[in-house]
Predict the structure of Fructose-1,6-bisphosphatase class 1.
Amino acid sequence: MTGTDTVAAIRAAVAGATPDIRAGLPGRREQAGTENPSGERRLAADEYADELLAERLGAVDGVGTYASEEREAVVDTGEGYAVAVDPLDGSSNLKPNNVMGTIVGVYDADLPASGRDLVAAGYVLYGPITTMAFAHEGSVTEYLIENGEPTVLNGDVTLPDDPTVYGFGGRVPDWPADVAAYVDEVESALKLRYGGAMIGDVNQVLTYGGVFAYPALQSAPEGKLRLQFECNPVGYVIECAGGRSSDGSGSVLDVDPTALHQRTPVYLGNEGLIDRLEAALD
Ligand code: FDP
Ligand code: ZN
């Protein structure tokens, strides 16, 4: 198998798992009674999606490592790429029946790896319909997924030139003053759209243009979102779609990987908005 074949097989495996992930949600909205490696309480649905994806992705020829936000350590699955997965992003949205996602990063390196080692990345959005944005070889394709089968909706997704939305996580009083000042500045031109699931909020930015952030907080200087499983893969998608990612000072893809579950502040969106953000945080 070539690298491209493996990436296609990973994409197909993720798409193929989505009907099973969706079907498993209704009975798994309660707490599992356990915590993930980041100290967050897990839902039964988080564990279920993780087990399912470990099985499906671990079986793909050319996948050598499976890692997940829900597991302390990586799983050795053979020879090949390392896949890093957030099985159910935004799972606190399951109780109120709001959107959630699945994120996958395909690294050609041992984990924790740099975002520059990604060869592909993508995410599934479980909304009124199931869609997937998948970045490979510099471009982003959007798919509709029905019965686990992807069909192309847009073969070259790019951020619109005229951005209209923004969404920032964390409590406003917990934002550093420079983040609050930046939001004051952009909210005169952009509409607030925040749903509390990274993938839902980022996909609005990909669709309408704008800026998503889970910033550094006063109480948590590293923010909340995880580099390997969330920030790198989604930053890669946004950059391949012509946007920018940042940790506040430069591309998220350049953040030094130090630990599998490390967190980083993350800012994603149209180039001009991220340039202004970095200037504001200077
Ligand atoms: P969740 O805790 O529901 O899994 O993955 C972390 C995440 O969701 C992101 O999807 C989301 O952007 C963020 O946390 C939301 O955090 P807040 O509740 O602090 O806004
Ligand atoms: Zn997540």
